[in-house]
TrEMBL record:
It holds the Pfam family Glyoxalase_6. The lineage of its organism: Bacteria, Bacillati, Actinomycetota, Actinomycetes, Propionibacteriales. This is VOC domain-containing protein. Transmembrane segments: none annotated. It comes from the Bacteria. SUPFAM superfamilies: Glyoxalase/Bleomycin resistance protein/Dihydroxybiphenyl dioxygenase. It comes from Nocardioides panzhihuensis. Residues 11-125 form the VOC domain.
Length: 131
């Protein structure tokens, strides 16, 4: 079946996360993204900090945390800034999990966990010749 209507652009509205402490986790992610959290009761919304960024919404846990995450965030930083970014996030409460530095020529990344154990990656892509 074909769709005769054009597909409108799809953008990322927000990342939604459950948290044991939504305000504390929002504060950590504000350090990651540069966003400014806004508390409303036991929920926290943080709009995107800049064009091309993403918003985040934090809410209280509704059940036990799964043993394994089915997805995680891959964040991209400019080439040459991954190490400094990782060091900054470690200073603010992230935990280092592992690095992938030589397996792929088009990307290097470090996998971290936020203060509640949610894994995320900080990646950098080397410049492409001619671009």
């Amino acid at each position: 079946m074909t769709n005769p209507l054009p597909i409108p652009p799809v953008t990322l509205g927000a990342i939604n996360m459950e948290a044991e402490d939504p305000q504390a986790l929002a504060a950590f992610w504000a350090e990651v993204t540069g966003g400014t959290p806004a508390v409303s009761g036991d929920h926290v919304y943080m709009p995107a900090a800049h064009d091309g960024g993403f918003a985040m919404f934090f809410q209280p846990m509704t059940g036990p945390r799964p043993d394994r995450a089915a997805s995680h965030l891959d964040l991209t930083v400019p080439w040459g800034s991954r190490v400094a970014t990782v060091d900054r996030l470690l200073d603010r409460g992230a935990t280092h999990l592992w690095d992938v530095l030589e397996e792929y020529e088009h990307v290097q990344w470090t996998t971290l966990a936020d203060p509640e154990g949610n894994a995320f990656c900080v990646a950098e892509h080397p410049p492409v010749a001619g671009h």
